[in-house]
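Sequence only, no structure available. Ideas?
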Amino acid sequence: MADDFAEDLQKEVTDEKTNAKSYAELAAAKSAEIKALEEKVVAKTQEKAQSESTFEASKKDIKVTNKSLEADIKFQAAVEQRCTGSDAKFQERMRSRSDELTAVSKTLQVLRSDEARDLLGKSVSFLQQSSRSAKAEEAMKRAGALLMENGQRLQAQGLITLGLQSRIDSFTKVKASIAEMVSVLKKQQDDEVAHRDMCVDDLNQNGLDTEEKKGLKGRSEDKIKALKSKITDCNSAIAALTAEVEEMKMQVQLAGEARQSQA
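Reply:
I predicted one. C-alpha cells follow.
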C-alpha cells in the first residue's frame, strides 16, 4: 500500500510539472500573440491618425480649390461681358467698320482724282483756273453726296458730318478730314481685332484653368472619399484587434484559473 501511495504521489508530481509546463508554454505563446496584436493596434492607430490628418488637410485644400474655381467662373463671365458677347456681334461691328472705311476711301479717291489734283499744280490762266475750280467743285459735290448717301445707308454719323463739312469747307480741309477719318477707322478696326484676340486668349486660358481645377476638385473629392473609407477600416481593424487581445487575455486567465483549481 505504501508503494501505491508513493506511485500516486509520483504521478501527481509528474502531472503537476506537466501542467505547469503546459500552462507556462500557453501563457508565453498567448503573451507573444497579445504583444503582436497590441503592436498591430498601435500601428493601426498611427495609420488612422495619419489618415485623419491628411483628411483634414484635404478638406482645406478642396475649400481653396472651390474658391479658386468660383473665381475663375466669375472671371469668365466678366470677360464674356467685357468682350464682344458673341461672334455675331463682333462680325457685325467689323462689317460696319469695313463698310465705313470703304465708303470713306472711295470718297477720298474722288477727291484725289486727276481733276481734283490739278488744283495743286502749277500756276494757270484765269480761264484754266475757272475750269479747274468748277471741276473741283463738282468733285466736292460728288464726294459730299457719296458721304451723305453712305452715312444714311450705314447710319454712320461721322460720314454724314463729313458730307455736311464738304458743303462749307475748302477742298484741302475736307480732304484732310477724310484722310484723318480713314486713319481713325483703320485704328478702330485694328483695336477691335486686338480686343477680340485678347478676349479669345483670356477665355481660352481661363477655360484651361477652370478644367484643371475641376479635375483637381474631382481628384480631391475622390481622395477624401478614400480617406473616409480608410479611417472607417482602421476603426474596424482596431476594434477587432482590441477584441482579439481581450479574448486572449481571457483565455490566459481561464487557463490560470483552471490550473489553480487542479492544484
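Residues 119-132 have pLDDT under 50 and may be disordered.
Hope that gets you unstuck.
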